[in-house]
Amino acid sequence: MTIEKTTNNEEPRLLLVDDDPTFCKVLGGSLEKRGFQVSIAENLTDAIALAISREPEYAIVDLRIGQESGLALVQQLKALDENTRIVMLTGYASIATAVESIKLGAVHYLTKPTDADEIVAALNRGSGDCSVELASRPISVQRLEWEHLQKVLTDCDGNISAAARALGMHRRTLQRKLSKRPVRH
User: Fold this and answer.
1) Which of 30, 83, 134, 147 has its CA 20 to 30 A from that of 177?
2) This prediction's pTM
């Protein structure tokens, strides 16, 4: 994988934001071996502070950082530097969050598990891929429910209580449904 060097031939700076310290350590080490200068943050406050002080060219942002949304961080990183190339990484993928992350300025959206090579390729990819394989069967009812919940939550700016009211369900029921990993199909 090739990476762009900064203007003074230093390793490019990358900000990795995820609330899982073990994941950060492993992925951070892999990215350093691939030529990046990695800074790690496990919450939004630290991520913004590092972005201001280190001015990263690249960022990898988890969708869920504790109880906070990585979507808000994508928006803040782009406000700090519109040229930062951001990849959204998540174990809770949905169409709604994929669309929103791209609208907010991420260059790619990857689902966990993934590896460092795939992430580096996504960071460097400049355009879409029309050869992506199309689904061979319709989405399942369980997955459709997950997608709908994510869309309503996004429409409510991540406010679980407002989303639960809009869906006509108890807040704790919605939280329980959201905490489960979505089905693949």
Assistant:
1) 134
2) 0.71
